[in-house]
Amino acid sequence: MTTEAPVPFEVLVVCTGNICRSPAAEAWLAAGLAGSDVRVSSAGLHACTGEPIAEQMARLLDVAPPRTPARQLGAALVARAGLVLTMTRDQRRGVVTLVPAAVRRTFTLREFADLAGAARAEGVVPAGATPGRALAAVVTAAPRLRPLRPAGAPDDVEDPHGRDDEVFARVAAEIRESVDRVLATVRAPGPDRVGTGPGPLCVTTGGSAARG
């Protein structure tokens, strides 16, 4: 008699072009949750379909970049995700407009990091919970955790595409800090500290600008 493998908890990270912010968050989350019951992927609301992660962002990663190139966000991707993380409030609205039923499991990355920290302090995550179950517990507890979030806490991670290396480094650090707080709550070890090496300006294959 064979035992079926458990269904993984799916985390979907969303930004605009799926070439800067969301693949970076995907890479760090996937590295920190490797071998667990969580599967991480990303997509863009206006994706630069088929493009790899922006070179400026790739050079800031200290883990393997996502193998999947940029792809367009679709309702099916949102529907099967247990947690959707966006880079801005506008993107969160875009996800919820596409799939209204996802409203209670869609957050900005920075918001969810704050909620995860509150969940850790409040003992929301059961002892011995797998990372997937821990993330699900934070999602479920989000309505009662929101009042614990600091007033005026930032939600958005700016789009670095077309900007200089300093902006990319700042954005990468913001993403990494949020990812690390999420990983700490689900008791998964995060990767090492992000680097700040410079990289070339990212353009699409055809040389035109895109958004991350």
TrEMBL record:
GO terms for molecular function: protein tyrosine phosphatase activity. Gene3D superfamilies: 3.40.50.2300. Residues 9-185 form the Phosphotyrosine protein phosphatase I domain. It comes from the Bacteria. SUPFAM superfamilies: Phosphotyrosine protein phosphatases I. InterPro entries: LMW_PTPase, Ptyr_pPase, Ptyr_pPase_sf. Pfam families: LMWPc. Residues 188-212 are annotated as: Disordered. PANTHER family: LOW MOLECULAR WEIGHT PROTEIN TYROSINE PHOSPHATASE, LOW MOLECULAR WEIGHT PROTEIN-TYROSINE-PHOSPHATASE ETP-RELATED. This is Protein-tyrosine phosphatase.
